[in-house]
Write a structure and sequence with these properties.
With 297 residues, the protein is α+β, with helices and mostly antiparallel strands. The longest helix has 21 residues.
Length: 297
Amino acid sequence: MTANTSEAHVVETSGLPGVSFGRSADGLPVALVGDTAFAMVPGRDGRQFLATGWRIGRPIEQWRRDDFYGHSGELADESEFRARVAENAEHQREKRALGRREIRSSANTPWGPSQGATVYAEGVTAHSTAGHGGFHLSAERNRKVNSMLRAPGGWYEEDAAWAIVALTYPDLFTTYERRHADLTVRGSWPDAWEAIFGCVLEPGESREKDRRAFELRHADDWIVVSAILSDQQPGFTEVIAAKGGQRTEHTPVRRYLIPKDEYGISGGPFGFIIDPERHTVYDGPSSFVTWAARGPA
């Protein structure tokens, strides 16, 4: 038996599935939960991230990096890797206990014909299509959605609006799903979240609130809205900046040249702010194919 193989072991969770931890053939920390495989994979700048795979038909000690394709966020260390895997195992256990049913469906959805659906409960159905998907709530179910979040037709797309369904019917979702739903509603619909729960979200608790605050603080600043490496000025990034970062047809815009290294590390979550003391307006040849001034500088 190899050294890698001897490190593989199974940790049983409450109910199925269990969790198998081990080392891959190329030395990565790996784990198996049901049919889902996990690995802690090195990325750039010494960072680690959680990678996923599906139904790898070999023993753990024979897995390799190229068996994994999904990217599920950064990891601080192996302890966090194990915690994230255990969290997924509990999520899968809870999901099985909820008894969701897979059905065939040919329903018309806002994203195209349904290619299959999952019934969470009577009147709560998640549809998959060729390109997207989301939930549909019956009229009765939809009436219970908070009016600030309610979609008139009862359709809630899978990227963010699914969280509205989970917030309204938490008993149909796992602990993991409820936690992410809460974060999603906070981030995208903070006004509704505050009205529902009767408290105010502080800075850092809602991306949308933070974005609004950023725009208020920098309404008179020039903020980058588009960038490209300069062909004419090596080592620089050519940027288009708009007043207040607004992307409207009539918003004034300017071009600047920013040192490539500075632009790469200095941008905040809502945009790079031009410093008029250091950055000067650039009127030279452009690397933007369709550049045209949309307003006075």
